[in-house]
Amino acid sequence: MTIGPGMRKTALPKGFRVSGVNCGVRRYRPDLGVIISDRDAVGVGVYTQNEYKAAPVLYCQGITPSDGIRAIVTNSGQANAATGPTGVEANARMAASVAESLGCRSTQVLTASTGVIGTPMEIEKIVASIPELLARATDSAEAFALAILTTDLIPKTVTTQVELSGGSVCITGICKGSGMIHPNMATMLGYLLTDATLSVEVAQSCLREAADLSFNMISVDGETSTNDTVFLLANGASGVSVTSESDLVLFQSALVELAQILAQSIARDGEGSTKLIEVELNGAPTQELARQAARGITISPLIKAAIHGEDPNWGRILARLGADGIPGDSLDQLTLAIQGIKVMELGVPVLFDRAAARARLKGDTVNITIDLPGGEGSAKAWGCDLSQKYVVINAEYTT
Amino acid sequence: MTIGPGMRKTALPKGFRVSGVNCGVRRYRPDLGVIISDRDAVGVGVYTQNEYKAAPVLYCQGITPSDGIRAIVTNSGQANAATGPTGVEANARMAASVAESLGCRSTQVLTASTGVIGTPMEIEKIVASIPELLARATDSAEAFALAILTTDLIPKTVTTQVELSGGSVCITGICKGSGMIHPNMATMLGYLLTDATLSVEVAQSCLREAADLSFNMISVDGETSTNDTVFLLANGASGVSVTSESDLVLFQSALVELAQILAQSIARDGEGSTKLIEVELNGAPTQELARQAARGITISPLIKAAIHGEDPNWGRILARLGADGIPGDSLDQLTLAIQGIKVMELGVPVLFDRAAARARLKGDTVNITIDLPGGEGSAKAWGCDLSQKYVVINAEYTT
Predict the structure, then answer these.
(1) Which helix (H) or strand (E) holds A211?
(2) Are A287 and B164 in contact (CB under 8 A)?
(3) Distance from C-alpha of B317 to C-alpha of B369, rounded to nearest angstrom
(4) Dihedral of CA A236/A237/A239/A244: which sign?
(5) Which tops the pLDDT comparison, A188 or A112?
(6) What is the ipTM of this complex?
(7) Distance, CA of A260 to CA of A275 (rounded, Å)
(8) Are B99 and B68 in contact (CB under 8 A)?
(9) Taking a C-beta distance cutoff of 8 angstroms, is the pair A194, A188 a contact?
(10) Omega of the bond leading into A65 within 30 degrees of 0 (cis)
(11) Contact state of B328 with A180 under an 8 Å Cβ cutoff
(12) B90-99 core/surface letters (b: 16 or more CB in 10 A; e: else)
């Protein structure tokens, strides 16, 4: 897989172009982006399970799945959540304005918003900028990736080619997210684009599995947003179909890997983060408990603060596993390693060199592996450390 | 109610004495305490629901409820959790040593521990100090309240007299807790002492209700400890029984009020805390949802950080309520006030003076009131703000 994060140029699948401009809602940085497919694309989405959904989420839920998507327009700075009927109207105008310029119907344009909740949308600025936005469309992902950022420090893109029986297809992913990250089903904003030909049903099931193994297993702060959305657009421009079982396996595994890379990039760029935390948990009584307990480690402020302090404080990991429902008799047989150093083996604390352990925690990635006896449940989750900077960022964000 | 927090002298109920000394586990500060009843007391407990329970919790669960309790011995600095069979043995020796000095059976002595998880108990130091500990017993609560503190800054005691039909009884409460605070059923360490005469059954139900409305509704960091315990001892030394329905109501309401004062004192003294957050939520579809959503506000790092920054960032409150399961159609009718300033009324954002709101957030207590339409569920919860100091404390605690 060719990973294209950061400011390097990231290729788009055939038939897609993207753009990003500053429309004047935010100062000095792009705040409006669009993804355009030059032909009708299969478009599916997975959306936040927060009961309080933003206007664009409600709108897109009504449109997808679809086989006629032509564009996704996204603004940053204002979330269009808790904005009432005027927010619904603003969202409809954003879609209609793009549709008019492209010469398609409004229902062929998806929308997403990210930013402060409860602020009225400055829709006139957005609508006025759409002609320029569309005119600037290019064939690399960066302009769009930059336009959707909020407190993120790093644009997040990745692209890969998958060799299928009928030829090669491209998948490109773009996402954003840094705070209010604890996706439940979807996440932050994610855009997966491919020039493969997929049916609506296959697209939906591929997206759901990819989201479950990636975006749904990251957490920055345990907060589920009102706007979380991941889209998958498949426009068939490669002329290559994903139909056989073996092609589906190849395509699906590439999509999962790509989604996991994007998800990790969000956790690593979490607000105030200095380290990526990777948790691998095996042997839980059930799959659901494995997922819950692995995610529990990544949202524990005590564990996150200890890792920030490069402190192998393993007692907090045990306490958290017990709090999240791993049975006590299972914990009595647990083997736990931090950065490959065993701190507990089959339930017995291991005497380890604390200075050496601290040294291994100095890197920018920290692995925690948990082996429980017997069960079938296993999961991987990703998070980040908790720093003083997280508090500073979030004590000062709106005002 | 006479509140006796801090360093003022706090009276104990008749027939109780307490003590605290330094046994040498911690430097320069008391780390071993005991509560003694001069006669057999009814003793009940509520304990952590963490699956990974400390040795003293497992021990006390085997002894309570009891009508023959004579003492509770508690050490701070070492939690006696994740300590294996040697921890179980150390706990038994701690109880036996107190029992021997008092001339009673081991099963008449309860135990509790608080401190670092996974550190072996320095039991020889503890046992060697027990004669001096017992010799120093006095009739005010402070020596014990100080001996059980860990990262707490303030000892927490409260006492009250309740006038019952048969005469006056005294209830005194002592507790500790500052981090790893998100009790599930019990909490941190809490000790409620009374000279009233209670049956075991009445004591157990009084304690459970008091804990549910107080300790179980506070959170500092969403972490459920391995050691959470609240005890209630009733030794009958006042000669006044709680038997009639009206006496029971008086006694129970005094116990709840006292437990709530103690619980609030823990939240206010949460690690790094500068403000107490009080959440009152009314009109949820169910009582359980009300409790969950009210607590959700108190564990949200984004809301806690905003309050630390004295920022009336109400959108985060809406997002959290939706994430914690309050139905969307209910949120569409919500009225929300922060420090008495309405920011949303019947689902519509209210234009409010942001500077004035910020000024009202400068105090050491912040009220959030949430009114939903129609439902019967209501709850109060308490928490604290999230400061940079929380991170500093927990990045540095063990090493």
Answers:
(1) helix A200-212
(2) no
(3) 11
(4) negative
(5) A112
(6) 0.73
(7) 17
(8) no
(9) no
(10) yes
(11) no
(12) bbbbbbbbbb
What are the DSSP calls for A287-338, one per residue? HHHHHHHHHHHHH-HHHHHHHHTT---THHHHHHHHHTT--HHHHTT-EEEE
Asked if B96 and B106 count as a contact pair (C-beta separation under 8 A), the reply is yes
In the predicted model, is pLDDT for residue A168 greater than 80? yes
pLDDT tens track for A121-134: 999 999 999 999 99
pLDDT at residue number A397: 61
Which of B189, B162, B184 has the alpha carbon at shortest distance from B174?
Answer: B189
Counting Cα atoms < 13 Å in the Cβ hemisphere of B297 gives: 32
- Write down all domains in chain B, each with its CATH number in brackets: 16-268 (3.60.70.12), 276-395 (3.10.20.340)
Looking at every residue in chain B, the average pLDDT score rounds to 89
CA distance B238 to chain A (A): 40
Q: Is the pTM of this model over 0.90?
A: no
On whether the CB atoms of residues A343 and A336 are closer than 8 A, the answer is yes
Tokens representing residue B241 in the block: 């029984």
What is the distance of C-alpha B132 from the center of its chain?
Answer: 28
Crossing angle (nearest 10°) for helices A287-299 and A301-308: 50
A321: chain B residues, CB-CB within 8 Å:
51-52
For chain B, the distance separating the N- and C-terminal CA atoms, rounded to the nearest angstrom, is 42
Question: Could you confirm whether A187 is annotated as catalytic?
Answer: yes
CA angle at residue B153 from B137 to B21, to 5 degrees? 25
A302, A334, A354: which to substitute to probe chain B, counting the most B Cβ within 10 Å? A302
Chain B environment of A309 (Cβ under 8 Å): 394-396
Q: What is the pLDDT of residues A175-221, one digit of tens each?
A: 888 766 665 433 478 889 999 999 999 999 999 999 888 888 887 77
Burial class (CB in 10 A: 0-12, 13-18, 19+), B103: exposed
> What pLDDT sits at residue A2?
46
Q: What is the mean pLDDT of residues A53-63?
A: 93
Backbone conformation region of residue A214, classed left if phi is above 0, alpha if psi is from -120 to 50, else beta: alpha
pLDDT (0 to 100) of residue A214: 87
Task: Tell me if A330 sits within 8 A of A373, measured CB to CB.
Answer: yes
Mean of the pLDDT values across residues A338-358? 90
β-pair type (A276-284, A377-384): antiparallel
Tell whether the model's pLDDT for residue A35 goes beyond 60.
yes
For A123, the token pair is: 């829709």
> What residue ranges of chain B have pLDDT lower than 70?
1-8, 179-187, 397-399
Residue B398: the pLDDT is 60
Of A117, A325, A392, the CB nearest to B51: A325
Q: Do B399 and A311 touch (CB under 8 A)?
A: yes
Neighbours of A135 (CB within 10 A): 10
Q: Residue B362: helix, strand or coil by DSSP?
A: coil
The mean of the pLDDT values for chain A is 89
Instruction: Tell me the shortest Cα–Cα distance from A223 to chain B, in angstroms.
Output: 7
